[in-house]
TrEMBL record:
SUPFAM superfamilies: S-adenosyl-L-methionine-dependent methyltransferases. GO terms for molecular function: methyltransferase activity. InterPro entries: MnmM_MeTrfase, SAM-dependent_MTases_sf. This is Putative rRNA methylase. It comes from Pseudogracilibacillus auburnensis.
Length: 188
């Protein structure tokens, strides 16, 4: 009955995102989340998909092309610079964003998301959210450097004003080996 971490992250996005919406995949990696988002928003919506690795951008592009989905802007840059790429007229209009932290599976484990840029991106994205919108952050922290990012993101999320945001932590607390967990931020 309890959903696993990725199924629950996707469940949250499915509950929030409608056809025609504007959404962000902050870490496209192999493209699985971009694919979900593109299907949820449909041809009338749009996905902004970030990654600092060209390999991730190309893999995601190929996956979306294979699924005949074209309403995606691919951004080969850090999500920390989100405000350079998402038009200012989308302020208050983004309905969802997802971060999958850590490293690209089956790739260079040295290229990881980091607390400073993750928090800069979340902070910028909060200004883009419409009422009821959600940022879903899947936090992997078993790798080198992961613990620092986890602590920084949790500390940041815990101090968000409860009058403006509802912040959820979804985590299995009896699993071994630092399993991933979710922090979800809803704009009230
Ligand atoms: C866990 S993977 C993402 C998995 C992906 N969501 C999927 O469905 O396959 C994390 C990704 O974050 C990317 N990344 C690391 N730092 C980044 C940054 N500052 N901005 C954007 N992407 C970043 C990595 O290159 C890697 O591809």
């Amino acid at each position: 009955m309890l959903k696993g971490i990725i199924p629950y992250a996707h469940y949250l996005l499915k509950q929030t995102i409608q056809p025609g919406d504007y959404v962000v995949d902050a870490t496209c990696g192999n493209g699985n989340d971009t694919l979900l988002l593109a299907n949820l928003v449909g041809e009338s919506g749009h996905v902004y998909s970030f990654d600092i690795q060209n390999q991730a951008i190309e893999t995601t592009k190929a996956l979306l092309k294979a699924n005949d989905l074209h309403h995606v802007t691919y951004i080969h840059d850090s999500h920390a610079r989100v405000d350079q790429y998402i038009p200012i007229d989308l302020h208050g209009k983004i309905s969802g964003a997802i971060f999958n932290l850590g490293y690209l599976p089956r790739s260079d484990k040295q290229v990881i998301t980091k607390g400073d840029s993750t928090i800069a991106a979340i902070n910028a994205l909060l200004t883009y959210l419409k009422k009821g919108a959600l940022i879903v952050v899947v936090i992997y922290f078993g790798h080198e450097g992961g613990m620092d990012e986890k602590d920084a993101v949790l500390q940041y999320a815990q101090q968000l004003d409860q009058k403006l945001y509802a912040v959820l932590q979804y985590q299995f607390i009896n699993q071994k080996n630092n399993p991933p967990f979710i922090v979800a931020i809803e704009k009230k």
